[in-house]
């Protein structure tokens, strides 16, 4: 399996190379040169497998010669052994059509754990082969940071520098990052900055020769292909439980950076019978505008009760534009360069028509988010977080054939956003006992200006140079 850049000019890499590189050298994102595909019989044969074994079967076509199937299975068994639910990503039912895929049973209570627990092990595996050191630089709007830090804290040959917009993540999200005191963990709170600002700093660092010549820079954000690959698995897990390959399933995905829902697109490319992928946004609705009208234009970020979706530039959307628009790297590079210069872009007819075959979108405002949290509690006895509420709002309003089950991805435990849940329901969700002492732990974090030079100087002053 070879990986190519969405912008067409970076060298192709194998799975190990793409995992360690993160962002391609031409500024693009790595995608497989071709999509592996399972037959209906092969998908039917996956029914009833333990999650770790299902994960190894779904992901093995992507790893090529970088890992044997047996070694991949050892890593998935280790990664998912830390989850509090034996099913890892269990389904629960709202009503005759609506289902909830619980992705918050990992150590940091968010869907990012499903991918990042494995990614941390992959980093360690690949780095051990050459005794290299990796400097991970990432940006988070809340959940990626804590999941990535938990996955790599204390691991050999890896240092992590995680940027978050100061004051724009929940208290639980912040403390899950800043209370990890391992010496290889560095939290950076950026003053007067949004997630988009932090993400732009990370991307700039990948293209800064002064940094990349000195340090081996790696990524844990969903720009890293290996992270998306691991997220494909739970689409198969849910789809098979609900009748695939003999029955279609639709998915509603709360998303800001488009990685989670792009994993659903990959699952469909691999043969899973996905009826629709519903892209659910909050009022920061660049993805809804792009999919509904072709207008991919950056607006101002509006802080909401769903901070992980407070994004106006969705990094992974580039992968979809590449895949449905003819896989023309040169044309997409020009299109993205124009967007980066003007912060506005119109999708081509090919991109719009290609996306419309599988995707639809919806936008939930603050009232709709709150009403959906209340509906889930009053009608189903289920507490959901604000991000999940955006997905459920979109799912219930999607107009999907009643014979097709609709699965909303529950991206975070409601206790990560207790104030918002309590305002909507009168119920304050408590933290699970495994993280119940979070607010008693010591915090460590560096406050920096939200400027590239300040962040680059901090990383350069602390990171381990290349050998």
TrEMBL record:
Residues 99-354 form the Tryptophan synthase beta chain-like PALP domain. It catalyses: O-phospho-L-homoserine + H2O = L-threonine + phosphate. Signal peptide: none annotated. It holds the Pfam family THR4_C. NCBIfam families: thrC. Its EC number is 4.2.3.1. Belongs to the threonine synthase family. Its cofactor is pyridoxal 5'-phosphate. Gene3D superfamilies: 3.40.50.1100, Threonine synthase, N-terminal domain. InterPro entries: Ser/Thr_deHydtase_PyrdxlP-BS (IPR000634), Thr_synth_N (IPR029144), Thr_synth_N_sf (IPR037158), Thr_synthase-like (IPR004450), Threonine_Synthase (IPR051166), TrpB-like_PALP (IPR001926), TrpB-like_PALP_sf (IPR036052). PROSITE patterns: DEHYDRATASE_SER_THR. One of its GO terms (biological process) is threonine biosynthetic process. PANTHER family: THREONINE SYNTHASE FAMILY MEMBER, THREONINE SYNTHASE-LIKE 2. The modification N6-(pyridoxal phosphate)lysine is found at residue 112. Keywords: Amino-acid biosynthesis, Lyase, Pyridoxal phosphate, Threonine biosynthesis. Residues 2-80 form the Threonine synthase N-terminal domain. This is Threonine synthase. One of its GO terms (molecular function) is threonine synthase activity. Pathway: Amino-acid biosynthesis; L-threonine biosynthesis; L-threonine from L-aspartate: step 5/5. It comes from Novosphingobium endophyticum.
């Amino acid at each position: 399996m070879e990986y190519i850049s969405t912008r067409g000019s970076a060298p192709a890499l194998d799975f190990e190379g793409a995992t360690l590189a993160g962002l391609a050298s031409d500024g693009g994102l790595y995608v497989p040169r071709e999509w592996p595909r399972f037959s209906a019989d092969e998908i039917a044969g996956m029914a009833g497998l333990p999650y770790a074994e299902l994960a190894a079967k779904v992901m093995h076509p992507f790893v090529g010669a970088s890992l044997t199937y047996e070694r991949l299975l050892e890593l998935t068994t280790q990664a998912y052994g830390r989850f509090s639910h034996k099913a890892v990503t269990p389904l629960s039912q709202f009503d005759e059509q609506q289902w909830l895929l619980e992705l918050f049973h990992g150590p940091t209570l968010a869907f990012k754990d499903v991918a990042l627990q494995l990614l941390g092990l992959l980093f360690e595996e690949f780095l051990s082969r050459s005794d290299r050191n990796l400097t991970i630089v990432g940006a988070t709007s809340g959940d990626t940071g804590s999941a990535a830090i938990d996955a790599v804290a204390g691991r050999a040959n890896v240092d992590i520098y995680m940027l978050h917009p100061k004051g724009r993540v929940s208290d639980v999200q912040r403390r899950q990052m800043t209370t990890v005191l391992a010496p290889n963990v560095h939290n950076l709170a950026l003053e007067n900055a949004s997630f988009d600002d932090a993400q732009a700093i990370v991307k700039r660092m990948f293209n800064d020769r002064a940094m990349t010549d000195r340090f081996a820079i790696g990524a844990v954000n969903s720009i890293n292909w290996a992270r998306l690959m691991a997220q494909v698995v739970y689409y198969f897990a849910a789809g098979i439980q609900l009748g695939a390959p003999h029955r279609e399933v639709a998915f509603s995905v709360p998303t800001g950076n488009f990685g989670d829902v792009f994993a659903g697109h990959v699952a469909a490319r691999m043969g899973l019978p996905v009826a629709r992928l519903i892209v659910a946004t909050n009022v920061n609705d660049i993805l809804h505008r792009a999919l509904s009208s072709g207008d991919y234009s950056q607006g101002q970020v509006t802080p909401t009760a769903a901070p992980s979706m407070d994004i106006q530039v969705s990094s992974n959307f580039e992968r979809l534009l590449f895949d449905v628009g003819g896989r023309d790297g040169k044309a997409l590079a020009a299109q993205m360069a124009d967007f980066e210069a003007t912060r506005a872009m119109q999708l081509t007819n090919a991109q719009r028509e290609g996306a419309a075959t599988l995707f639809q979108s919806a936008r939930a405002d603050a009232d709709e988010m709150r009403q959906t949290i209340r509906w889930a509690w009053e009608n189903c006895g289920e507490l959901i977080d604000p991000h999940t509420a955006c997905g459920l709002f979109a799912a219930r309003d999607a107009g999907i054939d009643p014979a097709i089950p609709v699965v909303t991805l529950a991206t975070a435990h409601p206790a990560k956003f207790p104030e918002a849940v309590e305002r909507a329901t009168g119920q304050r969700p408590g933290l699970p006992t495994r993280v119940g002492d979070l607010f008693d732990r010591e915090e460590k974090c560096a406050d920096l200006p939200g400027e590239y030079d300040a962040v680059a100087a901090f990383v350069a002053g602390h990171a381990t140079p290349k050998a």
